[in-house]
């Protein structure tokens, strides 16, 4: 029997920042799951900056969401019906279900979640894709080393918050850059950063002066989540043979601020003369690191030595507004949407 489903589809492609008219709430029916498939009910939906790129038609590392298609996204869900070995009704799973109340998904596109380890929402945050991104960017890409100095943009976000805590655990000096005094206070008092600078308090020049004051011996590693004025401020402070892990550039995702971006010759000259290593990465290329990441981070979360914060929006229909806020830094920590009731 078909299952009723609510979903948010891409109604039109944004011209600059997304607006409510780019989204549409629809009602649909899902078929019964076939062999090797499961029917799931979404509990938590993850909202992430990369979704802005999926709204454009331009060629990228992943296919864009088609017009009229369900918005892309990871979710934690309860299994209602299973036609797959190893997954049973009542299991909690995480997978790319999209902005929808229900989904029919192949079993090999899902991962079971153990509710006894941590709250199931963490499978979308500190123990999920953002957490793995932080671990990979710090270790595999950034080759973090004790006694070095790292600057982390979007320092209290789902990626930056964990990256900073892992860096502190490795004996690094950690300087965060965040938007607002409350986020900076959280980075200092809860996450244990050595310093945190408010990028909203001044222009790129002022931020650059603050970075040089906080890192008198220079910056060895920059964990890049934002682009914008933070990148412009950090580049001159980089040490010779420094590294930049390029994870995101949220400041430019909607085409805002590009005219004020540092000119390419400025960046290129510093990369050349400081012999910097700049590497972009997409976390799906590094799934082989998942085991090492989980072995290190799960016990830290269980002990409470890793702190995390979540911003929760209730109701699938409110996902577009929450996503638009995310792109402007309105969230604090991991942005989630509570789509359905907890299991059981």
Layout of helices and strands:
Elements: E1 3-10, E2 23-30, E3 37-46, H1 51-54, E4 75-82, E5 92-95, E6 102-106, E7 110-112, H2 129-141, E8 149-153, H3 158-169, E9 173-178, H4 181-189, E10 195-198, H5 204-214, E11 219-224, H6 228-234, E12 238-246, H7 264-273, E13 277-280, H8 290-303, E14 310-314, H9 319-326, E15 334-338
Parallel strand pairs: 8-9, 8-11, 9-10, 11-12, 12-13, 14-15
Antiparallel strand pairs: 1-2, 3-4, 3-6, 3-15, 4-5, 5-7
Instruction: Report strand %.
Output: 25-35%
Radius of gyration: 20 Å
Shape: globular
Distance between the termini: 23 Å
Supply the helix-strand structural class: alpha/beta
SSE arrangement, N to C: EEEHEEEEHEHEHEHEHEHEHEHE
Mean pLDDT: 95
* Multimerization status: single chain
Q: Uncertain regions: pLDDT < 50 for 5+ in a row?
A: none
* Helicity range: 25-40%
Specify the number of helices.
9
- By DSSP, the count of extended strands is 15
> What kind of sheet is the major sheet?
7 strands, mixed
Written overview of the protein:
The chain is 26% helix and 26% strand. The chain is built from nine helices and 15 strands. Strands 3, 4, 5, 6, 7, 14 and 15 form a seven-stranded mixed sheet that branches. The protein has a six-stranded parallel sheet with strand order 10-9-8-11-12-13, sandwiched between helices. Helix 9 links the parallel strand 14 and strand 15. Helix 2 crosses helix 3 and helix 5 packs across helix 6. The longest helix is centred in the last third of the chain and has 14 residues. The protein is globular, with a radius of gyration of 20 Å.
